[in-house]
Amino acid sequence: MTTNTSSFANTNRSGNLVAPNGQVSSNSNENNNNSNNEEDQLNRINLQTLQNRDPYISKIVDQAQRVCVYKFVAEKREW
């Protein structure tokens, strides 16, 4: 198995909100849904960026804060 890494920009995914009165509160379900949508969009952008360098990359199997890890499947000749 060959494993390669590629850097990508990190986004701030803070789970806290500051109310007008200065109190800090946790996100509501609506904000969590927005965060999930933003994360899905970021994942699609990261995959597209990787595919621009290598069109045989089919998916991102795991990622960290500053690195995406993907593996090459020799039989299928794809990442």
Automatic annotation (TrEMBL):
InterPro entries: Dcp1 (IPR010334), PH-like_dom_sf (IPR011993). Residues 25-36 have a biased composition (Low complexity). GO terms for molecular function: enzyme activator activity. It comes from the Eukaryota. GO terms for biological process: deadenylation-dependent decapping of nuclear-transcribed mRNA. Keywords: Cytoplasm. It is found in: Cytoplasm. It holds the Pfam family DCP1. Residues 1-43 are annotated as: Disordered. This is Uncharacterized protein. One of its GO terms (cellular component) is cytoplasm. Residues 1-15 have a biased composition (Polar residues). Belongs to the DCP1 family.
